[in-house]
Fold this protein.
Amino acid sequence: MAAQKKSRVASERDERERGALGERIRSVDQRRLVAVDECGTHTSMTRARARAPKGKRVYGKVPRNRGKNTTLIASMTLEGGMGEAMAVEGPPTRRSSRRTWRACWPLRSRRGR
């Protein structure tokens, strides 16, 4: 057997569930759909370059403690651009996701708007 490059797939991905979702939303007007996504970063970044007189060494400081990550959870629609968004300190959890959903989209999902 020859060695091959590994393709990574999310462990929680269920193809039957994805197919069923596709069938359920096929009849929904696409303009009503909202995509919700998240990304994370930390704010203690260090500059890659610095300036100094010619022939002199540059000494830079690096943050000692990185701190927690900040997670941005935002929505996007077919009209383009970013919709409602919320920043959460730390990684996204089930609790923070529920809190975000209720804060950003309180009645739209329930009333079918």
Q: What stands out?
A: The chain is about 25% helix and 20% strand. Residues 15-25 form the longest helix (11 residues). The mean pLDDT is 77. The two ends are 54 Å apart (CA to CA).
